[in-house]
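Hey all, quick one. A colleague (J.T.) asked me to put the NDP job into the tracker so the inputs and the structure tokens live in one place instead of scattered across chat threads. No bug as far as I know, just bookkeeping. Sequence used:
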Amino acid sequence: MAKVLIIGAGGVGQVVAHKCAQLANVFTDIVLASRNEEKCKRIAAQLKNNYGRTIKTVQVDADNVPELVALFNNIKPFMVINVALPYQDLTIMDACLETGVHYLDTANYEPLDTAKFEYKWQWAYQEKFKQAGLMALLGSGFDPGATNMFTAYIAKHYFDEIHHLDIIDVNGGDHGYPFATNFNPEINIREVTAECRHWEEDAFVTTAAMSTQQSFTCPDGVGTYNIYRMYHEELESLTKHFPSIKRAQFWMSFGDSYIKHLDVLGNVGMTGIEPIEFQGQQIVPIQFLKALLPDPSTLGSRTKGKTCIGCVVRGIKDGKEKTVYLYNIKDHQDCFGEVQSQAISYTTGVPAMIGAKMMIEGTWMKSGVWNMEQLDPDAFMADMNEYGLPWKVIEDPGFDLI
Ligand code: NDP
């Protein structure tokens, strides 16, 4: 049906390439481009081996708009699936506008020098995409992405009005390293060390990073974990698009070893994003740290355990208060068996593929810039069950959350 250009050949790019290759009737032609073409070729070899599919690979610098424009004009894709880094969102959107190509990403734009996590830069493209008759789908990963869909699905099918939202992201996987991140270390550490914001009544309330925690017991025997409140970008779009929400919080689990290492690294300045001078060279501490840490795309074979990510929503139905929990559990080793990747990349890459499928098949195709929850969740949720991320609902789960 359509030719897609995937940009980024990291952990998530690998899963997107696999999942698109598995659906040959939708993704008839696949091109994989990244800064380093060797990584694309390694993934292309997996696809040939696993599914007998041949894809084209290309080297591109996605910070460079003229280079992207030349590539898009040459390839002529229907859409770009952007799974490079958040820094490249705007350059890729600019190139899409110049060449008439639809756009999808999994993380909102961030300027390199400030860890801000705001949609304002991408929302500013609304009129341009509308006028060009092009669609930009923002945040089609797991969180953001599936969590936006979970919220929209719960709001549509279980409530008249939703009031409280808690997004709980538990990674019960263990890779055996004292400290490693499950996706790009620079982006991960910028996110985790940013000050916490959560929604109360009609405004965001700011608290110190990782200063609020509680214990959470996952369903289906996944285990009990310490979860920490932090800011996550979907809180901004969900509170805008569901104005009845009075409180929205995002929680993520971290092991004691991760917290201990992050504290020390932060205390000695290794997580800084400002350049410093070292032996006559400018280096950014967090980028140097990234070079020392394990590459997340190599964690797949050694990560054991499960992820459990879901949304707890409280609201009103037929005049009565109730609570609904919708979640997905994914086993790291199952992901590795299927696409040679751990579950964090898997749970991001599958919704990216499904979002692209929704656009290609026309289920969601409309011009403008859209967050996931603005679109009907039913077809997407059905595809989550179909393509590797089955979900369950518990009504009135009896959690005792802060
Ligand atoms: P990786 O660092 O593993 O991969 C990023 C890829 O992008 C690498 O192949 C990298 O190339 C490439 N890249 C970086 N800069 C450029 C550039 N200027 N031009 C071309 N290619 C470039 O990251 P992940 O795969 O872990 O994450 C990918 C994206 O997914 C990130 O934006 C991340 O924030 C997002 N994400 C979203 C989640 C969600 O649930 N919504 C969860 C996890 C991740 P090189 O190999 O040369 O560095």
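Adding what we noticed when we looked at it: The first strand starts at residue 2 and ends at 7. Residues 8-13, 34-36, 39, 60-63, 83-86, 88, 106-107, 141-145, 183-184, 187, 296-297, 344, 348 surround NDP (CB under 6 Å).
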